[in-house]
Design goal:
This protein has one helix at about 30-45, and strands spanning about 15, 20-25, 50-55, 65-69. By secondary structure, the chain is of the alpha+beta class. The protein has one domain. The two termini are about 20 Å apart.
Length: about 70
């Protein structure tokens, strides 16, 4: 919001127990733009913890990124 006007809309993938944002991707690798998007979601919602999940990896543990604000 800016001066009472909506400037844009965010589409969160998932919020767990009003404490954790889960952002789901299926990309070759996680880039800084994906992290920035997730940090932006944290800032807008006021939450402190997010999990960025990339499903396009052979081992899921390599596709997880924890982001704390």
């Amino acid at each position: 919001m800016y001066r009472g006007n909506v400037l844009g809309h965010h589409q969160l993938d998932m919020v767990v127990d009003s404490k954790l944002i889960v952002e789901i991707k299926a990309v070759e690798s996680i880039h800084s733009v994906h992290v920035a998007q997730t940090v932006s979601y944290l800032r807008v919602t006021g939450l402190r913890l997010a999990l960025l999940v990339n499903f396009n990896v052979p081992l899921l543990a390599r596709g997880l990124r924890r982001i704390v604000r």
